[in-house]
Amino acid sequence: MEKLEDIQKEADWCLGCKTKPCSNACPMHTNIPEFIAKVKEKNFEDAYNILIENNLFSHVCSLVCPQEDQCQGSCVRGIKTEPTKIGRIEAFVNDWAAKNNYKAIIPKKETRNDVKIAVIGAGPAGLSFSYELAKSGIQCTVFEKEKVLGGILAYGIPDFRLNKDTIENIVNTLKTLGVKFKLGVELGKDISIKDLKNEYDYIFLGIGAELSSMYSLSAEKIDTVYDSDTFLRAYNYKNFIPNLKKVVVIGGGNVAMDSARAAIHMGAEKVSILYRRDREHMPAREVELEEAIQDGVEFNELVRVDSANIENGRLKSLHCNRTQIIDGKAVDIPNDEFDFEADTVVFAIGLKPNKELLINEGIKLSDWGTIEVDENNQTNIENVYAGGDVVDNKSVVCKALASGKKTAKIILNKIWKKIFFGI
Prior knowledge:
Elements lengths: L3 H9 L8 H5 L6 H9 L3 H11 L3 H7 L21 H14 L16 E5 L3 H12 L3 E6 L7 H4 L8 H13 L3 E4 L9 H5 L4 E4 L5 E2 L12 E3 H9 L9 E5 L3 H12 L4 E5 L11 H9 L3 E3 L2 E9 L2 E13 L2 E13 L2 E4 L3 E2 L2 H6 L23 E3 L10 H25 L2
Parallel strand pairs: 1-2, 1-4, 2-3, 4-15, 6-13, 7-8, 7-13, 8-9
Antiparallel strand pairs: 5-14, 10-11, 11-12
Helix pairs in contact: 1-3, 1-6, 3-4, 4-6, 5-6, 7-15, 11-12
């Protein structure tokens, strides 16, 4: 937890702009000037209440959001000098609440029994969706195929970035608000959209992009090649993979940074990131790369992994091409090939939705393989909505949260119109 005087100084730097460019750039539309004004007054209770009423995941966002591209990136101060460090202030307020065991005052309407909503997936989008509805007294039942709640927050983001107690606190709050959870229930296996529509008025799909993208390195089977999802689950569930030795992570996003750092924490001898483009074009946040390097991860840019060299059934090295950036794309440099020692490989080049599952459920997909939705996040099936990575598979946590919140408000508007005006 940062020093109070440092945070006060940071808060005092905020101009409190009436136009709120920072709030407008925040996917969750947090009232940033208002909560910072309370910090200036050292009124951390009200600051925390402002944050949580708007976004139950405030603590998560303060730790993993790319503030430099959103709220801080839009700070007026940043035009001529340093922007207000909004993420630091938000993290401090959340740390203060945890340290002082302060529980936010969350306004909640009386529970209604005439509307039932099913949520499939207990990740960021599904939980954010449930929060908005629960505050309005609408009953939600969340179906989750895993045995833990939180989705990528639980099994994808390592504890050195996000304390798992934070997720537990969020889930406990949702339970207090009346949200029901059913674990170990899988869409397409234990439940179907068709059956749920017979029992629930509305359905929200927040199942995420659950399939890892990979490509073949060899015609031979290699036991030490993992996708990032499997690898990070092993770390987060404390089922550490033994004898990692020399690890190569392929990719340049935040998941690649998490995978590389997780390998260090699991006892790897050496961890290297090989990325086909350069540092300027990599999608990972600069702070994530810097923290990985501080942990001992070696970063190698402009390298494309082509294939694996196998010796006696074991991975010996990776055959690579050096690349150059031409018109923003990574292009192989002719006759510039080399081998890179590796015992373990982790693919961290993206996730994609389960197309087969969604098609079988009657959901229409876009050309990109994501769920096709209208401006209200409704799918081709009436009263079935979707949000998060299953709609935008290059989403980040805060945008998944925002899509859940937006969809909940749209459905709430629909519910109130029906109840009060019969339309």
